[in-house]
């Protein structure tokens, strides 16, 4: 059967979706800033681009962390 899971809960699927969303947004932000830095010829901006990508990943992950914490409390 295609598309079926063997787990009894949907939480692992939510975790994979959350990780994929956070990784996509962080990599997109990093790619845009690195592309702009390379186009401008400034290599020192690359460290700032990495810091921005980490910040974007943290901000993007916050809603998923909140939902995960609320679901943990609700399922107890």
UniProtKB/TrEMBL annotation:
Q: Which UniProt keywords apply?
A: Membrane, Transmembrane, Transmembrane helix
Give the stretches traversing the membrane. 17-39, 45-67
> What is the protein's given name?
Major facilitator superfamily (MFS) profile domain-containing protein
